[in-house]
Amino acid sequence: MNNDTVWQRNFTFLFCSKMVKITADSLAFNTILWFLILDGKGAVGTAFLIAVSFLPQAILGPIITPLMKTSTLKFWMFFSDLTRALIMLIIPICYFNGFSPLPFIILLMLVHSATGASYDPASVSLIPKIVKQEMIQKANATIQSVGQAIKLGAVSLCGVLIVLIGAAHTMLLILPLYVISAILVLFIKYSVSEVRNAKAAKPREPYLKKLRRGFMLVRRHHILFPLAIFCVFLNLGSAPWEALAAVYIAEDLNQGAIIHSIVRVLTTGGAFLMGFILTRVKVNRYGLLFVAAGIVEGTAFFITGMNSLLLLVFVAAFVLGATISAINVPEHTIIQISVDDEDQPQVYAVISMISYVMIPIGALMAGYAATVFGAGKVIAFGGIVEILAGLGILAFTKLGKSQRSDLSKAKEDSLEL
Q: What's the pTM value of the predicted model, to 2 decimals?
């Protein structure tokens, strides 16, 4: 077996499971969205769906992850997939029997989102256990790039399936995808002997102490703390684009749904290409790449918002996609290299919670501001927020200066906290 490739047995199973799950998640969200619309739930139903799609996952992450052990990561992922599969069975069965009230559907989707509070931290933390440290970046980039393409394909497939067989029947097709993803995870094997020896040498920490430790690690870690702060401004700055892109294309560019679809395709293409590049190029300064990508993203938002030129919007969309991979890959890699195995799930969940809550806040603020200043100017202002935050992080923190060796040293230092 070639040890210089990321495609070892365990990573192959994880990769296949993730791709099947990404397909299922994309199909599930869009199918439920159209199910609510076609069932007469309208704007209220879709608004609630979007709200419960990521907030429970972000908020519950730090609460659930202290319960995780390195030896049980794959089982958290397994039961997360099975729970989502069960939801894809319950909704259509109830619908076929004439029972589909909005509160019931939203409650199930809240549970659907909450399972991500265990799956995502566990899957990110699992990668360092099954690939060599020098292959972590490549593993993250591979999942990121292919995952973006899978999402786009799943959205297109969802539309076809809903037209052909309806939203409720499409959910029944999603169910086996979650089951397949769950089964593939169980084939992953990794050594936990070192973890068990460490656990035997010291008493088990109380839950509340582990809960506090996740927040304390992020606060005192000289690399993770500025990373978390910048994540806040990244999501705050990108929220106007996420909330107003369709409005901007319709009102400022006088274009329709086709142009919006092209923008999404270009964004996915940029993310795929950058992810592919990061599988080939070895990065030494992950923090610098992370911050620089955020500044470039902010610049793209600013240029797009201030210039109502269609060609410029297309170029900016591609650049925005590239920055998605250039931000996500180093973020995950920094956590995986600079944090101890047992602490990785909780650190990931804490950073996600801190940053993700900015999305609805930013989107709400952007919506109101757009009625006064226009969508373009609000999008441009979001870009300015990202640019200034990035320059501040580079000037006043060590994140941009940190190298791979600094991440390993930070991991050793974190054990003493």
A: 0.89
